[in-house]
């Protein structure tokens, strides 16, 4: 299984900033140590052509040229820097690359990504460019088919609703957006996904997994994707300082396995992104993400045992 990383592109954040930048390098080290069957690959850089599939030209230009005003920088949560631009492009590129790898291998991962609060014309919630929306449309473009003939499902299990993704893709029937999130958590103004499941504060393993099973059943009844993009947030964990849910490590493993089983039973390739995680102990967040990658690697073995031929030959770039 291939996993794409961006952790060596580091934002120069002020001292005491609450974004856990270190988790990405810690995760790559953990995967290298504990899941050696994963092939680690440097993420490519998303160019303007890709970004413009989901974002307004004026916004892409403002980010790229350093012309974001202070209000929009505050909404994102990062001060503008060249490193912010490079990392954000690489994070989107990593999800694009993971999608392409998944089409060949059944599953692949981005060791970052899940930047679902970015809208077409603005960022928010530590998200600059919306990697899932970009990658979904990029894969439709790369497939050589009409969008309606290459359907993509985005399964967003970050604890926060994927408001930016829902907004960008609201009128796009070829991409299904599913979000299972804390109902009273950020963002406090939700957008309408194709399917939203809002959970109560303190929700634990049993209630969460019951809600997820129901959501996946609805997805299966409404939509037949050729690709799944899965946002495997670590922030539903009981030790997350922003999550307000109470999932255990075991519950999160069951969550991931249910999504992987859903994809495998229907022979749908799946690209995994890490999304959020803000543990009181950063090692807990890294452990949740590493568990997801370990389970993904087992899922990859199922695909490898099933077939040695690619699912879809994409045209060369």
UniProtKB/TrEMBL annotation:
Coiled coil: none annotated. Residues 36-282 form the Histone deacetylase domain. SUPFAM superfamilies: Arginase/deacetylase. Keywords: Hydrolase. Pfam families: Hist_deacetyl. Belongs to the histone deacetylase family. This is Histone deacetylase domain-containing protein. It comes from Ralstonia condita. The lineage of its organism: Bacteria, Pseudomonadati, Pseudomonadota, Betaproteobacteria, Burkholderiales.
């Amino acid at each position: 299984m291939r996993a794409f990383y961006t952790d060596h592109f580091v934002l120069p954040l002020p001292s005491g900033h609450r974004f856990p930048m270190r988790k990405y390098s810690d995760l790559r080290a953990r995967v290298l140590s504990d899941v050696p069957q994963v092939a680690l690959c440097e993420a490519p850089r998303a160019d303007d052509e890709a970004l413009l599939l989901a974002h307004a030209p004026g916004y892409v230009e403002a980010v790229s040229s350093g012309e974001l005003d202070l209000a929009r920088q505050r909404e994102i949560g990062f001060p503008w820097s060249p490193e912010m631009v490079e990392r954000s492009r690489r994070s989107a590129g990593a999800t694009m690359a993971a999608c392409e790898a998944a089409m060949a291998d059944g599953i692949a991962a981005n060791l970052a990504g899940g930047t679902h609060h970015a809208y077409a014309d603005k960022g928010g919630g530590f998200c600059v460019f919306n990697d899932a929306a970009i990658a979904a449309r990029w894969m439709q473009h790369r497939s050589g088919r009409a969008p309606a003939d290459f359907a993509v499902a985005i399964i967003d299990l970050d604890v926060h609703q994927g408001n930016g993704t829902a907004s960008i893709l609201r009128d796009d029937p070829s991409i299904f957006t599913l979000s299972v999130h804390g109902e009273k958590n950020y963002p406090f103004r939700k957008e309408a996904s194709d399917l939203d499941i809002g959970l109560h504060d303190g929700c634990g393993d049993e209630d969460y997994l019951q809600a997820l099973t129901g959501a996946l059943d609805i997805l299966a009844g409404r939509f037949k994707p050729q690709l799944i993009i899965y946002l495997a947030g670590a922030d539903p964990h009981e030790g997350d300082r922003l999550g307000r849910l109470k999932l255990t490590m075991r519950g999160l493993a069951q969550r991931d396995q249910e999504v992987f089983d859903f994809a495998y039973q229907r022979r749908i390739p799946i690209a995994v992104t890490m999304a959020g995680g803000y543990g009181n102990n950063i090692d807990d967040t890294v452990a949740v993400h590493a568990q997801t990658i370990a389970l993904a690697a087992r899922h990859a073995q199922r695909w490898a045992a099933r077939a040695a031929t690619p699912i879809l030959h994409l045209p060369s770039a």
